[in-house]
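Table S2 (continued). Query chain:
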Amino acid sequence: MLTRAGSDVVLPYKLARQNGRWQGRLALAGFERVRELVSAASEDVAVEVALDFCRDDEGRCRVQGRAAVSTAVECGRCLKPQPCRVDVAIDLCVVGTEEQASAVSAAVDPYVLSGEEVRITDLVEDDLILGLPNQVCTQGDDCPNRPPYTYGEADGEAGAKERNNPLRRLPS
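Corresponding output:
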């Protein structure tokens, strides 16, 4: 069963019983917490999502898939927006209580769902946030927009070193 992006609200337990799939594009504007962390959240930026719903070996609802978005993220060094593509794997086990969540394997993230339906944005937003890079500029110290370092005068520094050297009076 394939569910299109006409609605971003799904019934995960029902989709898992039917081995369903949800695939579509959602506006980045609908991801409130992600939108706060990126520089460009225009209306035309979309998150591509593909999720497969199934039951695991213990009969629990399992959600696996991918979410990806191309946007701009502020560089921590130069504070200017840099293009960035975030592509994350989704692997969740949907459970009904915190007790059930604590029983889920550490290899899978539990998602506690109190009702029957959930928004796709709620399923994938945490993983998108965790997928955002800490440092956007891949060139490290060679960030193209990093302000240049400034150093003191070369002649003045040599004299200052000589004056501040406590060992200058010792014979060589």
